[in-house]
Amino acid sequence: MKSGSQVYCLLVNHLFSMLCDTWSSTSQYLPHRRLNSYTRLPSPSTISPLLIPFPTDSDNMLPPAFLLLCRSRPKPTLNLLPPKSVHVYKPYFRSFSTTPFRLLKTTDMTDNQFAAVKIDRERLWRDLHTTCEWGKGERWGPEETDVGMARLTLSDADKQARDWFVETTKSLGCEVTIDAMGNIFAIRPGKKNGPPTFAGSHFDTQPTGGRYDGILGVHAGIEALKTMNDNKIETEYPTGVINWTNEEGARFPISMVSSGVWAGAFPLEQAYNLVELGGGKATQKSELERIGYIGPTEASYKVNPIGAHFELHIEQGPILENSGGKIGAVEGVQAYKWFTITVKGRDCHTGTTDFKNRSDAMLTAAKLILHSHNKASELDCLASTGILNLKPGSTNTVPGFVQFSLDIRCKEDATLARLEKALKKDFFKIANGEETGGLNALGTKGRGCTVQWHLDTDSPATKFHDDCINCVEASAADMLGDEPNSGTLVQRMTSGAGHDSVYTSRRVPTSMIFVPCRDGVSHNPEEYCSPEDCGNGAQVLLGAILRYDRLRAEKVAA
């Protein structure tokens, strides 16, 4: 006959077996307190309970204070529950736990809670330099990362970085969409349907570029998604990160062309037919096809909408560094126009033709370039020439043909129009030998040349959205906390350079975040942004995205 303790143990074991059977026949999914996911419960055969042993001396042993212990590490299986958003995780996992999980919802978060969510700065720095192994350029210093970048768009190195982007974001549970221009959209689902709030920038670089222009912005967006997952944050609307194609325009000569196609600023065929610089025959379309990144989704804001766009970027200038600022809340981008100027004169012998009988296209072009700088300075604008070609290219022949680029930029459209009008008038006079600003006063008047203007591209002044700018400033205040002089560490700025945010701002609320770069240097192998500044920018980006998500929900509810 069994003792009372032995009967007790048999009953417990029998009850445990019944419990396992109940688990198998009822709901197979229980919520997890740590992950926004579910996992199928283990079957009874996979559970290893610590059953209560039969006592050998029942008279001297009291019943245990516990009934059983159970430990199981089941393999995750695909979730069968309906998603909350059209943008869903693929695959969508859920994990087992004995306690229910709780998501941190942006709509319930206080300002203090926004400030408490921190990115992993070391992870950001490590990921950034990992992808810089693809497309390394010129070494400029002794440190491991003192190497520039030469990752031209749609090159083999660009494909490697793109593959990493897709694999990484999918591992975070994002749905990845690639459009017809090769723009890659990684989307993390939200509680509700709606166009996602994106962080966007670019992986392509100049042929002699650095490691932070564009690259930092993409990685900061990915780090924001990782941090949301780490902290179990549920946004009201989907969020994500974009890698825009050919922002630089260094290989196919229109900058920001793919975001421009998305915004409706350029026809798709025009972008496809761009031929690579340097004498190659590849087109942008043929290279998209070659590396496998010409996607099935139409490149259009109408088909693939965005809710808002935030972009973290190095300043590419010295203002923040010189003023001691840490964050630039960017209000907009200045207007600019690019022209090709053609000057035609007459070839002649350098030793037998005096100045008054020359039609020197090179000398005339030099005067025009100098005058463009002087006039731009008068109007608080900028003028630059980065390309110059001449013919015939002989030491003892006065050139009869010169072609050069002219890039003019102003903060306001009206000022840019004034500068363009003044330069066209003055260029005509200078080329014809008329005295203008002392340029024809030294006996070099000559017989005159002709000047032709061709507009290559233009971009009007861009004003970013107040809601987005305010979210950036509030997030920067969170990041700085009680730091002394925090009011001077965040500055409102206008971007001197063009960015993909120029085109997104035409269709959706947009703003940018600037961080300092050493000596203001960019488009150069020595371009550098410190780990602290990279982390500061990524922290502000995350906070701006979360705050904007809450703001969207509040506006809908109002």
From TrEMBL:
What the entry lists under InterPro entries is as follows: Amidase_Cbmase (IPR010158), Bact_exopeptidase_dim_dom (IPR036264), Peptidase_M20 (IPR002933), Peptidase_M20_dimer (IPR011650)
Keyword presence, Signal? yes
Residues forming the Peptidase M20 dimerisation domain are: 336-426
Keywords of the record: Hydrolase, Signal
Q: Which domain of life is it from?
A: Eukaryota
* Family the entry assigns: Belongs to the peptidase M20A family.
Q: What is this protein called?
A: Related to n-carbamoyl-l-amino acid hydrolase
Q: Which organism is it from?
A: Phialocephala subalpina
Its organism's taxonomic lineage begins at: Eukaryota, Fungi, Dikarya, Ascomycota, Pezizomycotina
